[in-house]
Amino acid sequence: MKELDLDLGAGRTLHVYDTAADAADRLTVFWHHGTPNIGTPPAPLFPASDRLGIRWVSYDRPGYGGSTPARGRNLASTAGYVNRVADALGIGRFAVMGHSGGGSHALACAALLPDRVPAAVSVAGIAPYGAEGLDWFAGMSASGEASLRAAVAGRAAKERHEAAAEYDPEMFAPVDHAAFEGEWSWFGGVVGPALEGGPGGLIDDDLAYVSPWGCDPAEVTAPVLLLHGGQDRVVPSSHGEWLARHGRWAELRLYPEDGHISVLHSAAQALEWLRANAE
């Protein structure tokens, strides 16, 4: 895997990842990471992506890893970053896929780049805050709800919350803890580095999730696959159901026995769907 630092000007840098092998014969998929993660592409999906001829490209969102913070970014900002990365790498069209908050970033990218994005997958993605007909916090763990309510109260409140916050294992369902013990132990290598420089990236992410996206996910014209676990305590499945109801483009695969992490066991099947629908 190649890594590079893309100069955005004005002293800002975006850290980029590119698996790149036999790139000319592969479908490029931009991976959008969750919160708090760095942008390393999902290694547990490499066997499936090799079989399907998929090239992963991704980046650390601003404030994480090697990317310069960008205070005030929203979900729509991702389209600008992806455009810059794709142009720098000589990529024309590409699919998008993301997990958790990254799924919502993937949808925003698809909404704003219809000429470049032929298909999108969102796994356990977040619906827009204040979405009509959705009790946005219902079903979240107590710690997750408190964290996002602090973001609703503004940056200062969110910073105070993160200064005192501790990891709450109850935010994940038992099936998620089992997934962490298996192939998705991979998360240990992307969460720790995301927090080494402090919680800045996480704070900017959560502020973006409770702010206007800067685009409407219902504007996506490409086919979209939504995956969600019925036991998800981080982003309840009602978010995926709302997104499916409000997009003429969307197919929802709901896995009643899965949680926020274990739903990724079905991600290889989603890659097959992505490959078929991105042609």
In short:
Pfam families: Abhydrolase_1. With 279 residues, this protein is of the alpha/beta class.
Q: How would you describe this structure to a colleague?
A:
The chain is 35% helix and 17% strand. The chain is an alpha/beta fold and 279 residues long. The chain has one domain: Rossmann fold. The protein has an eight-stranded mixed β-sheet with strand order 1-2-4-3-5-6-7-8, sandwiched between helices. Helix 1 links the parallel strand 3 and strand 4. Helix 2 packs across helix 3. This is Alpha/beta hydrolase. It holds the Pfam family Abhydrolase_1. GO terms for molecular function: hydrolase activity. Keywords: Hydrolase.
